[in-house]
Amino acid sequence: MTKLITIPKFAEATGLPYRLCLHLVGTAQIPSVPVGHRRRIDVRWVDQWLAGGGYRPVALTPDADEPRRAAR
After folding, report:
1. Per-residue confidence at 67, pLDDT binned at 50, 70, 90?
2. By C-alpha distance, which of 58, 45, 60, 55 is closest to 20?
3. For 9-23, what is the mean pLDDT?
4. Cβ-based neighbours of 41, under 8 Å, separated by 6 or more
5. What is the per-residue pLDDT for 27?
């Protein structure tokens, strides 16, 4: 039988903030299934996702982190 976890348990397992997990599920970036009025996530998918590196936010370009310098 497939084990399903709640979004709070997904957040706990991944270390991601709960609100980010809600966003990822809401935008279907995290596959989930409806169970009544709630969403559940398959544990097998979570294990596979974490093994693949998990969530990686979009990286900034190297120049974006440097302070702007005044032109002289």
Report:
1. low
2. 55
3. 92
4. 4, 5, 6, 7, 10, 25, 30, 31, 32, 33
5. 93
pLDDT confidence of 34, banded at 50, 70, 90? very high
> Please, which residues bridge with residue 4 across strands?
42
Between the CA of residue 40 and those of 2, 4, 10, 45, 61, what are the distances in Å? 11, 6, 9, 11, 35
CA distance 18 to 30: 13
Among the ranges given (9-13, 33-37, 44-48, 58-62), the one the predictor scored with the smallest mean pLDDT:
58-62
Contact (CB, 8 A) for 29 and 63:
no
Residue 47, SS3? helix
Token reading at 25: 């599920």
Amino acid letter, 41: I
